[in-house]
Amino acid sequence: MINRLELSSKEIVFVEPSCGDGRIILGLLSSASFMTHNASIIGYDIDQSAIERSQQNLERVKSDKPVVLRCSNLLTLKRQDMMHDLNLTEQSSDVVTVVFGGPPYTPKDLPERFILHCINELHAEIVLFMLPKRCGKDGPRVQEILNSGDENDGLWQFVNKELVNSTFDFIDRKVTQPSIMQYWYKK
């Protein structure tokens, strides 16, 4: 995903909507490709203890990239709030928003709500989520919603890729979960 962002002259904002203990952000910070971009990261989580764990984990990493962590419900967040959290001015032509991570999976419609909110409210140009395999069938419906109306016809595309051997940490144990990666982008 990072290599596809050939936007070196633009500020790239990476948003992790449910950052938990910060593992995905740590992975991004360890990417050599990411470090060459003019980019910043913001992680949100609805759980203050998750934000604190994430902060502790991020303190162990040396990075010149700004990382902001906020306790907030992504589904109530507006783009201007996100920009304010990052101390950025709103210049839509100069800022590209990329949302990545693994949103909460329950209730059943929550991943779909996250995708639509990221695109409609945060004005994300790319959304990349790791989801349970059961969410794969929701992709065409989300694409239809995004592309409804003449001005959006065919604008949004997505890739649905099955992940092999996906495991997650859940309450201090490894859990195997059949998963997919959904990558949403403007055509």
Describe this structure in words.
- This protein has a domain at 10-101: Rossmann fold (3-Layer(aba) Sandwich), CATH 3.40.50.150.
- It is built from six helices and nine strands.
- It has helices at residues 23-29, 32-35, 48-58, 79-85, 110-120, 139-146, and strands spanning 11-16, 39-45, 67-71, 95-101, 126-132, 156-163, 167-170, 173-176, 179-186.
- A hairpin with a 2-residue loop joins strand 7 (167-170) and strand 8 (173-176).
- 29% of the residues are buried.
- The mean pLDDT is 84.
The neighbouring-strand order within the major sheet is: 3-2-1-4-5-9-6
Low-pLDDT ranges: none
Mean pLDDT: 84
Using the CA coordinates, give the radius of gyration: 16 Å
* Portion in strands: 25-35%
Question: Could you give the distance between the termini?
Answer: 15 Å
Q: What fold name stands as the CATH topology of the domain at 10-101?
A: Rossmann fold
Query: Globular, elongated, flat, extended or rod-shaped: what is the shape?
Result: globular
Largest sheet: 7 strands, mixed
Q: How many runs of DSSP E, i.e. beta strands?
A: 9
Q: Label the CATH architecture of the domain at 10-101.
A: 3-Layer(aba) Sandwich
CATH-assigned homologous superfamily of the domain at 10-101: Vaccinia Virus protein VP39
